[in-house]
Amino acid sequence: MTASEEVRLHISGLRKIYGLGTSSEFEAVKRLDFDLHAGEFACLVGPSGSGKTTLLKMIAGLMDPTEGEVVLNGKRVDGPPEGMAVVLQEYARSLFPWMTVEKNVELPLRVAGLDKATREERIAEALGAVGLEAARKKFPWQLSGGMQQRVAIARAVATHPSVMLMDEPFAAVDAQTRGELEDLVRRVWRQLDMTILFVTHDIDESVFLGDRVVVLSMAPTVVQDDIKIDLPLEREQLGTHALPRFAELRKHVYEQVQFAKTNPGGIHSSTDERRRTV
Amino acid sequence: MRTLRQIAIWVALPIILIILWWALTARGASFFVPQPAGLFSKFIDVWMGERLLTDVLPSLGRLAVGLVISTIVGIGLGVLIGSVRWVRWLLEPLLEFLRAIPSTIMIPVLLLLIGINDTMKVVVIVLGCLWPILLNTIEGVRSLDEVLKNTADIYRFKGWPRLVFVTLPGASPLILAGIRQSIAVGLILLVVSEMFAATDGIGYLIMNFQNRVAIPEMWSGIVLLGILGVMLSAGFQLIEKRILRWYYGLKEAANDS
Amino acid sequence: MTTVSQAQAAVAQSKRRYWWHKYGPLTMGVLGIVLALLVWQVYAVFGPVNRHHLPPPTEVIPTFLRSLTLSEFWVAIGQTMTAWALGLAISIVSALLVGLVIGSSRVLRVWTHSTVEFLRPIPAVGLIPVAALLFGPRIGAELMIIVFACFWIIVIQVIYGIADVDKVARETARTMRMGQVDMVKYLVFPTLLPYLVTGIRLAATVALILAVTVELIVGTPGLGHQVAQAQINDSPPAMFALIITTGLLGILINFVTRFIANRVLFWHASVRGEVRA
Lengths: 278, 257, 277
What we know:
Chain A is an alpha/beta fold. Chain A is built from nine helices and ten strands. Chain A is 36% helix and 23% strand. Chain A is globular, with a radius of gyration of 19 Å. Chain B has a single domain (54-256), classed as MetI-like fold (Orthogonal Bundle), CATH 1.10.3720.10. Chain B is 84% helix and 0% strand. Chain B has eleven helices and no strands. In chain B, helix 2 packs across helix 10 (215-243) and helix 3 runs antiparallel to helix 4 (85-100). The model of chain B has no long low-confidence stretch (mean pLDDT 87). By secondary structure, chain C is mainly α. Chain C has two domains: 1-48; 57-276, MetI-like fold (Orthogonal Bundle), CATH 1.10.3720. In chain C, 85% of the residues lie in helices and 0% in strands. Chain C has ten helices and no strands. In chain C, helix 3 (71-104) crosses helix 7 (180-218) and helix 5 packs across helix 6. The radius of gyration of chain C is 25 Å and the shape is flat. The chains are: A alpha/beta, B mainly alpha, C mainly alpha. Chain A binds chain B through residues 60-62, 80, 82, 84-86, 88, 90, 93-94, 96-99, 107-108, 110-112, 139, 141-142, 159, and chain B through 145-148, 150-151, 153-157, 161, 165-166, 169-170, 172, 246-247, 249-250, 253-254.
């Protein structure tokens, strides 16, 4: 599967300044431009403090940008848009604890007004894709952390989103589970023909998962680098990590992230500009 | 064996206390303290006949109506205040004042405005029971997990579905705790309002017995109140355990890890 | 250029939001009270109620202010607050003693559990007739009812608190080899304190309500009795003025206990949370 030319998500001139016009003004995102095409699996990677959360909130429509715009399928985002699903890091807190697994997956479909039969079909498909058919009637808190995150992924997948946003979804699970979940996301992406924007601070993860890695700078954030990952489509934990090409790409991304750490606002910016006024 | 031991632990002290009571009053009841056996038969005499229909049921009816109104108003207003910031700012100081007024002191005023009738008693009960439910609902709605709220935003849950599937279930542990408090408060207000001005009801009868210096009868009424208090609280706890099964499970899971 | 004016508009909007965030609660709060008084005024004058029975704030507030100059008014407040303070003090001391004894022994805690749980929900006001018979319209009647209600509230908190100490102590003391004095000082006391403070705060509110209630029904002197008197004298403005007084007293008690709680428990999560919110 290859990315088509169809632009799903278009981000241009995106900027965010907190506390504008007050003494505690802070520029989190300086200027961001990039396009996500249909079928792409792009990883946004950056050091902590690179405004990843701010950026994600703006893309998800949870926060208004100060300048610039996010466009999803030709429509400007001004609030959580239709056709986007988000998987958050805090799996335990993003699932509704008063509902069973299947009800959790069903709720967005029900609110969107899908009929019973379609809902059933989607639930079966999504839970099947993440391998949780057996846990349908369980409550989230009866499951392990990794399983809870799989429920959250299933819930997102079931809405058939045109873009799935994932915010450091595996940062809080143990290493073993993490590897399994990475394989799972790759599989689901290919199986269901999805478009994914995956935010992470983990360089290994970004190279392993993405077919494209976008490196962000420190705040005020710009795009530091945009790297195509030319690893084979078929990836698995041991083999892929052992490829020489993986090591090369990893090294390259690592260097860019290291550079980003000491260069807020990108190559041409200096630290003095961090607290600029408009 | 375990359950047997459990039951023994539960009933041991109450039995000892009753025996003590019985022994101490065996030589004849003092004016103020009745004998257990006499009190028991008095209790059956006074309450288990016609008065069950003419006094106990009307009292419980007032309490039920008052609690239902308090719950509906408390949750409705609480959701509004909890989710709309300017409404909260507008009403917070006012509510802080209103809830500080001991609701029993409103009884004489309500007597003038409404008269000696059921409406007056229900209003007194609502004036007292509203606050625990209202405040807990506000707190419950406001303290809803940030990530959960974000999730609801992301999937564009709005209006009614959001209220029913996210906000209310999320606030339910606190709302139910508020209702539990309100039941205790409601029983108190019911009794006081009946003691102050009524023509029937448990509180009225207890006061009436006192005026006639019918001490054992008076005590039997107090025992009835005690039993009602215990039964209502235990009954509600059962309901609470059922509705909040997920909540107790969640807490247990959190403690284990 | 559009971006410049766009940026300026954004700055202006952000500044407005900042001002609103800072002064909004006060502005709206005052507005809320003014609106409520206005509604009351209009309803009392034009509403379908007996004007005599529901006096408007323009009558009640002057009555309230005038009563501030009367010694009788202050005496009534003094009487109510004396019963409140004494009742609360007796409850705290006795509940603390009983709670510590029951709480510090696991056996006692388990065996008394059912009895405590049974006695707690019994409404104290049921005993008002007994108190009236025993004491007549004197402060003893108020104290009996207040203590009966507040004792349980505090005792339960103390028992829970010590049970909590038990759990923490088992984990900590083992690893740290603490002495008895240090245990009490660094473990028992700090763990118990939040529970105790919660119990006392609740009891303080309940004690005021019960003091006024007993005064109202039994006729012990105080604010509650004054309200009953005003009813007999057919003086609704005086009744409303007294109701406002009890409300203000309630707020004062709330405020003082919250202040003390914050001072004593500055390190506790619930306080830190309250400050942030």
